[in-house]
Amino acid sequence: MAAVATETPFHVLAVDDSLPDRKLIERLLKTSSFQVTTVDSGSKALKFLGLHDEDTQVSVHADQLDVAVNLIITDYCMPGMTGYDLLKKIKESSSLRDIPVVIMSSENIPSRINRCLEEGADEFFLKPIRLSDMSKLKPHILKSRCKEHYHHEQHQQSDCNSDESSNHPTNNSSSDSISNSRKRKATDDEILPQTTRLRHS
Predict the structure, then answer these.
(1) Quick check: 68 and 10 in contact, CB under 8 A?
(2) What would the DSSP string read from start to end of 81-121?
(3) What is the distance, to the nearest Å, from the Cα of residue 140 to the centroid of all Cα atoms in its chain?
(4) What are the C-alpha distances in Å from 57 to residues 39, 95, 101, 122?
(5) Reduced to 3 states, what is the DSSP secondary structure of residue 20?
(6) At what angle are helices 110-119 and 83-92 packed, to 10 degrees?
C-alpha cells in the first residue's frame, strides 16, 4: 500500500525567558499546526541555529540544521541578549538572514517597534499573544520560501543567459551577412533599369 504524503509542518523557534509565556506561545503554535521548539534565551536560540560566539564564527545554513527553522518568534525584553540583539545577530548572518523574525513585547513603545521593523523584523506582536496572531505567521514563511525560490531561479537563469550570450555573436554575424547581401541585391536592382534606358537611347 502506497504511503500517503503528509505536508511537513512549518517549524517555529520560540524564544522567551518567561516559562508561562513560553508555554502559551507553544500551545498557540501547536494549535495552529506548527512544529515548535522553545528556548529561554537569545544565546540558546543562536546555539540551536548553529550560530555560536563571534570567536568561533561557526555558522550552519538553516537548511542544514537537524530540523530546519522556518520562523523565529522572540520576546523583546530578556536578560543578557534582548530580542532586538538576537534579531540583529540573525540578520547579520548570511546563512540565517532569510528566516522571518517576529518580536513580541508586553510594552507598546512605538520607537521600539519601529527600530525592530527597521532592523528587519517581519512582525511585532503585543502580549498577550492571541490565537488570531498565529494566522499572521504563515504568510511570512511562505514569502521567505518564495524569495529563496526566486533567488534560486535567478541564479539558474543567469547561468542560462551566460551560455546563450556566448552563442549570440555567431548568430548575429550570419544574420548581418544575410541582410547585407539583400541590401546589395536591392541596390543592383535599382541600378539596372537606368543602364537599360541608356542602351535604348
Answers:
(1) no
(2) S-HHHHHHHHHH-TTTTTS-EEEEESS--HHHHHHHHHHT-
(3) 10
(4) 21, 12, 21, 26
(5) helix
(6) 20
Amino acid identity of 167? N
Instruction: State the residue for C-alpha cell 513603545.
Output: 109
- Tell me how far apart the alpha carbons of residues 27 and 19 are, in angstroms, rounded to a whole number: 12
The residue written with cell numbers 532592523 in the block is: 119
Show the CA angle centred on residue 156, arms to residues 152 and 162, nearest 5°. 145
Q: For residue range 32-90, what is the model confidence (pLDDT) as tens digits?
A: 999 999 999 999 999 999 986 543 344 444 444 556 899 999 999 999 999 999 999 99
pTM, entire model: 0.69
Cell numbers 543578557: residue: 80
Q: From the DSSP assignment, how many helices (H) and strands (E) are in the chain?
A: 6, 5
Q: How far apart are CA 43 and CA 32, in angstroms?
A: 27
Q: What distance separates the 2 farthest-apart alpha carbons in the chain? A: 111
Task: Render pLDDT for 10-28 as a digit per residue (tens, 0 to 9).
Answer: 999 999 999 999 999 999 9
In sequence order, the β-bridge partners of residue 15 are: 39, 74
* pLDDT tens, position by position, 122-140: 999 999 999 999 999 999 9
Q: Which domains are seen in the chain, by residue range?
A: 11-52+65-144 (3.40.50.2300)
Instruction: Name, in order, each residue with C-beta under 8 angstroms of 137's C-beta and a sequence gap of 6 or more.
Output: 10, 12, 32, 34, 71, 73, 100, 102, 123
In whole angstroms, give the CA distance from residue 97 to residue 17. Answer: 23
